[in-house]
Amino acid sequence: MRRKLVVGNWKMHGSRAANAGLLAAIVGARPYGAEVAVCVPCVFLGDTAAQLAGSEVQWGAQDVSAHAQGAYTGEVSAAMLAEYACRFALVGHSERRQYHAESDELVAAKAQAALAQGITPIVCVGETLGQRDAGLTEAVVARQLAAVAQALGARLADIVLAYEPVWAIGTGRTATPAQAQSVHAALRMQLQTAGDAAARVRVLYGGSVKADNAAELLAMPDIDGALVGGASLKAAEFIAICRAAG
Ligand code: PEP
């Protein structure tokens, strides 16, 4: 049985003062039936770890370097994230793929680097509107997942996967539960190629998840949680989504 997981992606938002209030509200609303985490900008990891340590709310980063160390100005290694006890790191978010030209192979290497330091990569896949309109949705997400599967082998079972249709991220336009379920089911079929990955890997849905649409999305059999952007910055919205998950 896969326990549902709700992850907030703060993107490049927040301040030390605002974060403290938001985290206090999230922690104060526990217990949650689902697993709950926030992925914060790296500079806030120290504060976040200090505030959340010992609570049931977990934390993580929004990216990780594929390299262990070296002359990679601006990058943050998985070992550095591990020093801040990160449980998760997003890899391959569509904003990284789009604005930083991250390839499927680089995303796979980042997932590998995270796992090597005991951090669970949340691997994001998803199609653009043009790709969906061209009937390419399943081919695109299959290609993105295949690169990770090839790099990880049996360790594919140790990732979290997030299906995030690019056209639904930050747009207020959400995939219908049926649209999302159909892609999630295809991804789970593909996971069957690696040991017990199909049974173990949680496949989150992301893309304009809000308090008022979370329950119907999370009721789908292959949707194991949510990756939440904008709504994770509002305590009441995020808490309601976490509660909708269990
Ligand atoms: C995201 O950034 O991963 C995301 C899903 O954003 P939003 O919820 O704002 O669409």
Folded structure, characterized:
- The chain is an alpha/beta fold and 246 residues long.
- 41% of the residues lie in helices and 15% in strands.
- The chain has helices at residues 16-28, 45-52, 78-83, 94-99, 104-116, 129-133, 137-152, 177-191, 197-200, 214-218, 235-244, and strands at residues 5-9, 35-39, 57-61, 88-91, 120-125, 160-163, 202-206, 225-228.
- It has an 8-stranded parallel beta barrel with strand order 1-2-3-4-5-6-7-8, surrounded by 5 helices.
- The radius of gyration is 17 Å and the shape is globular.
- The two termini are 13 Å apart.
- The protein binds phosphoenolpyruvate.
- Phosphoenolpyruvate binds at residues 9, 11, 164, 169-170, 206-209, 227-231.
- The site of phosphoenolpyruvate has 14 residues, from strand 8.
Main sheet: strand order: 1-2-3-4-5-6-7-8
What is the highest CATH level, the class? Alpha Beta
Give the radius of gyration. Answer: 17 Å
Separation of termini?
13 Å
Q: Give me the CATH architecture, please.
A: Alpha-Beta Barrel
Main beta sheet: strand number and arrangement? 8 strands, parallel, barrel
- The secondary-structure element order is EHEHEHEHHEHHEHHEHEH
Low-confidence stretches: none
Beta strand %: 15-25%
Class by alpha and beta content: alpha/beta
| CATH fold label | TIM Barrel
Shape: globular
**Integer tally of domains:** 1
What proportion of the residues is helical, as a percent range?
40-55%
Q: What is the residue-mean pLDDT, rounded to a whole number? A: 97
What is the number of strand segments?
A: 8
